[in-house]
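Appendix B. Extra example for self-study. Work through it before the problem class; the solution is given directly after the inputs so you can check yourself.
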Amino acid sequence: MLQRWFNQAVERSQLNAGAAIAGAPNTLGLCVARDEWRQAAADMAAGGGRLLALWASRDGARGNIVRAAYVADAGALILSLPLGPGQADYPGIESWFSSAARMQRAVADLSGLASSDPDTRPWLRHAAWPQSYYPLVHAAAPPSALPVAGHYAFVPVQGDGVHEIPVGPVHAGVIEPGHFRFSVVGEKVLRLEERLGYVHKGIERRFTEFALLEGQRLAARVSGDSAVGFSWAYCQALEGMAQAHVPARAVWLRALALELERLANHLGDIGAVGNDAGFAFGLAQFSRLKERLLRAAEAALGQRYLMDFIVPGGTRVDLAADGAALLIECIDALGAEVDTLHTIYDEHAGLRDRFVGAGIVTPALAAKLGLCGLAGRASGQAFDLRCDLPCDPYGELAVNKCVRAEGDVAARVAVRFDEAGESARLLRRLLSHLPPGAHRVDVSIPDEGAMGVGLIEGWRGPILLALEAGAEGMIGRCHPHDPSWQNWPVIEHAVIDNIVPDFPLINKSFNLSYSGHDL
Amino acid sequence: MLKTLRQIGRIGIITESAPPVDDSMRVADALQSQILAVMGRALCIRAVDAGSCNGCELEIHALNNPLYNLEGLGVRFVASPRHADLLLVTGPVAKNMQAALTLTYQATPDPKLVVAIGDCGCTGGIFGESYASLGRVSNVIPVDVTVPGCPPSPRRILSGILTAISKAVPDNARLRSAQT
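Solution. Structure tokens for the complete assembly:
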């Protein structure tokens, strides 16, 4: 059943070259009718496909299009559902992919298109603009509205001794803002409901004010900890649309940057999760190692966080003359240190007591809710774009997938240790086999109406970025999608029956993005 | 336990010296002498992300690592604005965060300082002002010191914090010459 949609897309792409989507490898596009939209979702769910993203864009003056991106063994499929003029509703797919619910609510807030699913509460729109204003449709500024916190209908939990604990948006730590509403009995969490959108700063609309050849700068700042992932996904889409041939050296340098980003984030997270379990030693040690890696990255590639490293056609700078030696020395030293600390983490009775069995997401639940990326792999979801849909140079690198089945905090820490080791291996190989040649080529401006998709496995999970070219070299539409969209709702399940003081630990073990989600 | 202690002993103290004060970051200094009289250099900071991409937060986190060792300078992060002397604010101010930021500022006892971190906090940065963003921090609350950069390095942020709690130029120059 699943294959049917891919076959259809292949057939149509042979009839019309425009149906193969530029950018990411093995990605096809298919236009479907209103009655096929849900059938496709049902088939994808039955066939083990995953929903990567759901968003809306404009079809010139003709009307709106709702798009959904799925990924399965056969590749990635972008389904488009054109809505007629004046039509502002479409069939919802929450029944098959529960993560679609919030994406559909965001589409309603930003584009004014309503799904048929039951939850119609606003998601990204709090009070900063009125309900009648659609930021991605209306060009003018909204009628001025004072951002006073409006009423939001949290789902109430009733019964003897049940009370609510509201937390946020400003948290007790250096963390991004979001609101958590706990319904508890004593210490035990009965229900958690998240309210996000606080850092919504209008990124999708801001993209349309950027030239196509400049948009990677904004993409890198969708979520600062995934700068390489998003800027690479942007450039992958753009270069596909412009049919640019990126030199091998540039592609390898990009993979180098992506693995450095993964390693730095994993080191930071392993320390921070330890700290949230009361083991300050872990934070001190791992933050020291992370700092060492960031300084090596700055010496070799010019920036601690590689915000502006990836540019259309290649990379902004080449590896510094002594960069390879410097990075290899750093990675070898880190490897030995991480091994020592790994043993300490594994043998520490207090840490094991907090980690094991906390915040469990079983593989069955993970599959049902669409948990993806690192957290998914800790719950038996063996999916990694670097292995399953590899772009250059990952096909050649043969990445080892790191998977655990326990689905608790301990498993998410274990996957981070395993992936940090794998990234170190990849970095050594990338640095010792870096192809010679140019690190950048010129990229032409794609024609108006061209569309491309970028798919990159960031450190958190699969990043999708859909790009459409507008007039005069400007961006027509750009939708960046962070895997946090799929994973945030799963935390609501992971904390059920855990105690409130374990929430920060469980939350940190996922370490999801607020900015990448709120846009 | 032995392995943990051995590791602590092996690494030793690796803290680096703090960066100098940078008066180019100073925007206002009306309260300086009053604040110094009350708390000297023992300072409590409340970090507020008002809409950042999280890049600045990563570098603020780094201040607590053993190399920058912020707490060694008598400066620490606290969990509530009611315990804070200084607000470290990042991001363009998202409209959805305007109320939370204003309430946090009001909850911080006087005298208080505000340091805006990053290009976005200083000018609105790449996000600017829009239907969803109010731009720079000083559009919403008064700012004393600005630390530009995308993201600014931990040394720059540390320098900004130390600038906020040191006296303005003439006194400061005297202080530095007295130290050397």
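Self-check: The first helix of chain A runs from residue 2 to 15. If your reasoning did not lead you there, revisit section 3.
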